[in-house]
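Researcher: Here's my situation. A collaborator sent me these components and asked whether they could plausibly form a single complex. I don't have experimental data yet, so a predicted model of the whole assembly would be a useful starting point for our discussion.
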Amino acid sequence: MKTPLVIERRFFYYVFMSYRLSDSGSSGDIELAAENESLEGLFADAARGLTEIIVDISDLRSDRRISLEVDGENLEELFFNWLSEIIYLKDVDNFLLKDCRVSFSDGQKRSLKGDLEGDDIDPDRQNLKIDVKAVTLYNLKVEKKDNHWHGEVVFDL
Amino acid sequence: MNSGDFKRITENMWEIPVSFKDGMRVPARILSSGKLIDSVDDKVIDQITNVACLPGITNYALCMPDGHMGYGFPIGGVAAFALDEGIISPGGIGFDINCGMRLLRTNLTLDDIRPRQEKLLSRLFATIPSGVGSKGFLKLSRPDFNQVMEKGSHWCRESGYATESDIEHTEDGGRIDGADHKAVSEKAVSRGIIQMGTLGSGNHYLEVEIASPENIYDPEIAGHYGLDRDNQVLIAIHCGSRGFGHQIATDYLQAFSRSVRRYKLEVRDRELMAAPINSEEGRRYFAAMASAANSAFVNRQLITFGVRRAFREVFGLDDEALGIETIYDVAHNIAKMEKYTIDGREMTLLIHRKGATRSFGPGRPEIPQVYRDIGQPVIVGGSMETGSALLCGTNTADRETFGSTLHGAGRVMSRMKAKKSTRGENVRERMKKSGILVKTKHMAGLAEEAGFAYKDLDAVVEAVHDIGISRKVARFYPVLNIKG
């Protein structure tokens, strides 16, 4: 029963992918801009976009599941901390995120729970591209415009 | 940038006056050759003049000839802060704390390695872990890692991974004083402890290079540094503190974002978050930053250990016959306490160097005795297609730039543009035709690091030579390259 779920998610990913990767002002690094109707979706899109910098996300399996909780003093800090956690899991747990569900734990949106699924790093069956080492504060934004949530972030590579 | 707006101090130095921007406490100085000055990005000007607004900054904010846009400071930014009223900022050091270069000499020549070059490349690639997810060969305990943080390369010597000569030929003997493992988060430790002895990815590399006679510009100094035969084989290592340094920068950017209000510090860029040097937060960041700097010295030392092993295996020679010795190891991203004479008074200042190399001239007590009469070696990295340069520190740098010079060629093309311009396989073939063999885990990364994505190394080296903040000694060309 697992396979259809994965296919459906891949389909979802390709058709409705709502992040864009581009050159940051600093020519060595990459900027991610994401947009989603919901804040939960924005955070999930940004996490998938982060993975896409590191690896062809379609090469990843959904063998592993990790849940985590993240806090921040404000929405931007929460966004920064969330993405920093994804990088941390890559370095320490050898984990690459393929997909995730995000739910906010409070009305203030200062803490969230992430249910992640993904894969071990395996250069033999994955097209690994470049390592992402940190989230920067440069141009970091999370804002609501025209009924959509927008997020921008630059990663240090 | 239109250089006509600024005051030309010397042939290769422009000054931006304090009237340029509200809040500037000192002028900013851009070092550049006449040819390069008009290509300096406006964002670099904005960033270096933001640095000039920081409390306690002394004399001027400086940008080296290889300067380009960074976060907070430009890359190539140098600034000195008075200890009593100055600040310390992760944005003035960089995420990859003590990213740096090490240069090793050998007794081998090009003729010795050509017949075994493919075997050597494969052996080095297998011995030095690189790329996403790579882990070091050491299984360090937590007490061991505390020693790595606080003792730096001295831990390597005690553990059999370094020689006495390696320690002597490393900036600050491979240990920055003031490191304290208690200032480092558990998260940073868990990222760092598994990555010691790994190259990383991006623009990090290990290269086997050749010093051919026509590229030795100053034979006397070159000989003093250990270049003593034609077509000598050298090894250049470019890497830093890996995820450990990045996590420390992340942790303290956040901590400073909270404390900046308490200290009423006005910063014009979130990446310039800072704390007073003498505050609790400032002292803790310095201790954590020094811990990361020490781990980076250890990282390059462990890679050196691996290089020696790989050469022994391939050539069947012992260490004495191979003669693999450290010429020098320099930090590119760091903050250090150093003494300078300001207005006739000797002062200890906290020097931030971000994408800049220390360039101490003759007589400075901080450099090894063996180099003290001539000045320290300065190792400058180019792209993987262009090799490296070796320069010598000068007293002009001590006077003009807080003992600092350039660190590398600097990118001119973004990764994405480079990747659109060519394919990794094409770069590998082009390099092969030029006599350079390359091995990597990430083929797309080769395109991103192609030679055309970087400034002309010779032009920036020529600029610092003309300015006098370091002297050209030699230029090396690659024959084997492991790209992280």
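Model: Some features of this prediction you could bring to your collaborator: Chain A has one domain: 2-156. The CA atoms of residues 25 and 111 of chain A lie 30 Å apart.
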